[in-house]
Write a structure and sequence with these properties.
The protein contains 11 helices and 17 strands. The protein is α/β, with parallel strands linked by helices. A hairpin with a 5-residue loop joins strand 14 (313-318) and strand 15 (324-329). The longest helix has 20 residues, at 389-408. The chain binds alpha-L-sorbopyranose (SOE).
């Protein structure tokens, strides 16, 4: 380190230039340990995750700091662009180098579904904490291997079902546990609707290919409302389902395109996943499940609606108005009852206290930041946090039972 100008005269009034630059790079509490993250994947989810890793230690009082160490993807040029734009120190095109890098503490998997299993198992072997995008894998057998791997290695793990950490959803969980809806839940009704593939000319992206995605709308977005049902109401016992692929052939993807805004070429290929799924089922606690997921609902962009009816009241939620939770209390006087509109931004609401003053609302990205803050806290303590890989596997079991029922047209037990 360079000597201070003042030290030459036997006293010091402040730090040297080098010391100043170190101080400005590390504005956080110097005594905090820093955990290095390696992110595999850099598209839509790569972007949401990069933002969350950066923001979580800025807004939440976490026991450790986070460094965005390495971002990894298949194309050297694209991953370098992502590195610069999303703020990572290093870029790599080899995920095996990233998961075996001794400098890295946490592996974040944001790749297409068919690669989750291999990457997670390898990361567990190297003792890394693992955060994995949903669905956990493409089938139950893969999920079981992943659960076995993280259990054997005793590494913290979590599946990124970010909607659990919407403050209104976390408040719904608190209210249900407190008994605000009564001691019986009768109904869990959930709909997840989008429209980004409603155009038959939308190309055959990886999410429409069963080899890569496992399933279509089902694993992509039905998985989220299944996870929320398991979180808020309980485990599902049996199901009966209907699945449909409306557009069976689509233009192939133009070389340069990807993601949800991809471009079509002249050639076509087969769609090998579902476009929509509707199913009913029974929870182990006797409640009835009624779920629908579709990407063919024109006008619905990311529409998640939930209603839960219990013996003493009801809750209703709409993601496109995600700062609010509606509560109907059956005990209110009959001439003055109705749904109460709770603006979930008070300091004592889940997660809200880490953000802005009441009424200064949150958005989609905060669901990831809240999720990552909980994960970082858990990793610092050497623990997993819900939804764990085991939760991801149990959600996959429901997905699998629903698919089996759609094929057989019979009731299927979730096993
Ligand atoms: C595409 O349907 C997608 O990005 C999903 O993969 C996410 O899980 C969902 O939350 C938003 O839509």
């Amino acid at each position: 380190m360079k000597k201070s100008f003042f030290l030459d005269f036997g006293f010091s009034l402040g730090p040297t230039f080098d010391e100043i630059s170190i101080l400005t790079q590390r504005p956080q509490n110097m005594s905090k340990r820093t955990l290095n993250v390696g992110l595999i994947g850099y598209n839509f989810m790569g972007k949401t995750h990069s933002n969350a890793w950066r923001q979580a230690p800025r807004f939440f009082d976490l026991p450790v700091d986070i460094a965005l160490h390495t971002i990894c993807g298949r194309s050297a040029a694209s991953v370098e662009v992502a590195r610069q734009k999303l703020g990572w120190q290093f870029a790599s095109t080899n995920w095996k180098d990233v998961v075996s890098n001794p400098e890295i503490d946490i592996i974040d998997i944001a790749t297409p579904n068919d690669s989750h299993c291999e990457i997670a198992i390898e990361a567990a072997k190297h003792g890394k904490a693992i955060l994995c995008e949903k669905p956990l894998a493409v089938n139950v057998a893969q999920c079981e291997k992943m659960v076995a791997a993280v259990k054997k290695a005793k590494v913290p793990n979590m599946v990124c079902h970010n909607y659990r950490r919407i403050p209104a959803i976390a408040l719904a969980k608190r209210m249900i546990e407190r008994g605000d809806l009564g001691d019986r839940i009768y109904h869990y009704r959930a709909r997840y609707a989008q429209d980004w593939i409603a155009d038959p000319m939308f190309p055959l992206v990886w999410r429409l290919q069963s080899k890569i995605a496992g399933s279509g709308t089902h694993g992509d977005i039905d998985a989220h409302i299944i996870d929320l049902g398991r979180y808020l109401v309980g485990e599902i016992k049996d199901v009966t389902a209907l699945m449909e692929t409306f557009i069976k052939e689509r233009p192939l993807l133009e070389e340069s395109g990807s993601g949800l805004s991809a471009k079509a070429s002249q050639k076509t290929g087969k769609v090998t996943v579902d476009d929509a799924v509707s199913w009913i089922g029974r929870f182990k606690n006797g409640a009835i499940a009624n779920l629908e997921a579709t990407r063919f609902a024109h006008g619905r962009k990311n529409h998640i609606t939930i209603e839960i009816n219990g013996s003493k009241g009801s809750l209703a939620f709409d993601f496109e108005d995600m700062n609010r939770l509606k509560f109907y209390n059956a005990a209110d006087p009959s001439d003055a009852n109705g749904f109460k509109d709770i603006l979930v931004t008070e300091e004592n609401h889940p997660y809200a206290g880490a953000w802005w003053p009441p009424g200064h609302i949150l958005g989609y990205e905060h669901t990831f930041v809240n999720t990552f803050a909980d994960f970082i806290t858990a990793v610092a303590a050497g623990k997993s946090v819900h939804p764990t890989f085991e939760d991801g596997m149990n959600t996959e079991k429901v997905l699998s039972a629903v698919s089996a029922s759609a094929r057989s047209r019979e009731w299927v037990r979730v096993s």
